[in-house]
Amino acid sequence: MKQTIQHACRIYRQDLLHITTNWVVAVIIGGLIFLPSLYAWLNIYASMDPYAQTSHMKIAIVNEDTGTTIQNQHIVVGDEVVQTLQTNESFTWSFLPYEQALQALKNGDYFAVIVIPNAFSTQLSSILTDMPTKAHIDYYVNEKINPIAPKITSKGASVLTQQISSEFISTVNGTLFSIFNTIGVEIEHEVPDFQKFEHYLFTIDQRLPEIETFLTQVAQDGQQAETLLNHTIAELPAAKAILANGLTALQRAVSLMNDTEALFNQLMPTIQQDLQSIQSIQQPEQHLQALQTILQAHIEAHQQLGHVVQSLLQQRTSLDTATVQQLEQLNTILQTMPKLSDALATLQQLNMNQAEDISTLLNKLQEQVLPQLRNTFAHTKELLTKANAILQQVQQSLPDAINRLLKAQKMLTTANQSVSALQADFPAIRAKIQALTQKIQALEKEMSITDLVQLLKNDVQAEQDFFAEPIQLKEHQLFPIANYGTAMTPFYTVLAIWVGCLLLISLLAVNLPAQEHISVRAIYFGRLLTFLTLSLLQTFIITVGDCLLLNNTLASPLYFILFGLLISFVFITVVYTLVSVFGNVGKALAIVMLVLQIAGSGGTYPIELLPPFFQAIHPFLPFTYAISLLREAVGGIIWTKVSIDCLLLISFWLFFLLMGVFFKQLLRRKMELFMNKTHDSNLFH
């Protein structure tokens, strides 16, 4: 074992001496050491900002929008889109006719064509109608030009549609919220009325039972009133006849009164002449009888007039208030008639008491009866004149009263029908009022009218900006990485280290000419040290260059270099062992491993997006843990992950180291025969 180590060290020293003393070898080795770093640096630099050059990608825009009219204003949204794109430097925009644009796309002159259709504005404005229609933009892409370009241009088209949608939503919402703000200001002035209405509605809801009872009573009273009014109208002809008869009787009473007064006036001189001789007359029955006749006629006239007045008062419902008052006054006056009866009774009593003193009788007649008769005649005549005027007035106003009663009958019938209809609809009205009350109470619990006004009066611009972009993505980067190039550094660095190992084993010999005093294992370890030294130099240049190129955007540059050296230590052992043990077959295996690891390590795409085969081999690839280890240094170190990655990488190193120790000696003869066969073909070196 000691001798093997000594021989290995001697081989290593000789290799270093040859490299340092032979300038040709030194130049070649220098190129091998430096070349892999170029691979890494160029790819990382190209990945720094791959979308920075999209401004050179040509996209054609076809605007066929004919516009639409909204509130007497012609609007062409397509023109606004074109104006926006003219200031957008994300791509090179060309504005072409439809046919020319599609032909240029087919020829590969443009990466994509975006067509704004002629109904674009109409479709957008359909949101203001009862049949809204989604607007669309046609997107044509030539995927034959480049596999990545369609994804980039598609992103540009998506951003364009999103921007149009955002601006349109912002404009529409701005208009709506401006209207809401105006409504809120107007409603604020009406809040007291709303509150009063709410109070009235709640009061009505509480008094619905009372209202229902009131409606029932009104209906009953209305029916009774209608019945009474119908009866009154039915009695109108009789009242009219009574009035006519009353006027006739009154006229007769007036005539009788005039005759009576004339007779009285005719008798008065005779009575006065007879006063002096009255004492000589022993039987004044003739004079008393005449006077009695006059008084009796007067009383009959008053009685007839009283009957007429009483009949009219019984029909007072068909008369107006003034007429009724006049009739009642007349009736009161007629109540004085008992005085005439008393006078007549006095005369009769005097007649029966003829034995009394004639002188006393004549004195009473002269002093009491005759003046009273004169007053009665005058008063009765005045009453008859007033009664005649009143009855004539009543007769004149009776047609108007009849018309009013008929109108009242019609109105009362209509009112009763309305009350009946209201009673029939009252259960539904009550249900509606109760439902509305419950809804208002529920809304009051959620939001009062004051809160609603405040909501409607919110800042229009702020709400417009909010609905233009209601949700903003607030990104929190746990392990922030500066750019895409920094994110791809682990993959390209690991790939460059492996490529550097392939370059070394492709140009440098892994074996020495057969020497009996040097064992196979000594050669294996001796050349392993040489390859390891060169690979570590390659990796050091790569990692240091990465740190400088990325301008301190790595989280842990020192650990990035150290982790890279560990990866180099493992990779060179793997590649060197494959070639040392299997010769040219080992080179092929190293290349196959490279191909599998590029796809299956998850360095570019998440492993979850890859086919099942690559997901299956993913845990068994050195790239998997090498890239993961460098990512820790790039984004931020979690030492548990670092420990696991280092442990698994060392496991790969140990596995291939043991393979070289045991299988190189075991397969030496067979591999020499295999190599001789390939050399004899003059196709392999």
TrEMBL record:
Residues 426-453 form a coiled coil. The keyword Coiled coil applies. Keywords: Coiled coil, Membrane, Transmembrane, Transmembrane helix. Pfam families: ABC2_membrane_3. InterPro entries: ABC2_TM, AH/BAR_dom_sf, Phage_infect_YhgE_C, Phage_infect_YhgE_N, T7SS_ABC-Transporter. It comes from the Bacteria. It is found in: Membrane. The keyword Transmembrane helix applies. It is a multi-pass membrane protein. Residues 28-166, 420-661 form the ABC-2 type transporter transmembrane domain. The chain crosses the membrane at residues 21-42, 491-512, 524-545, 557-579, 588-607, 613-630, 642-663. This is Phage infection protein. It comes from Lysinibacillus piscis. The lineage of its organism: Bacteria, Bacillati, Bacillota, Bacilli, Bacillales.
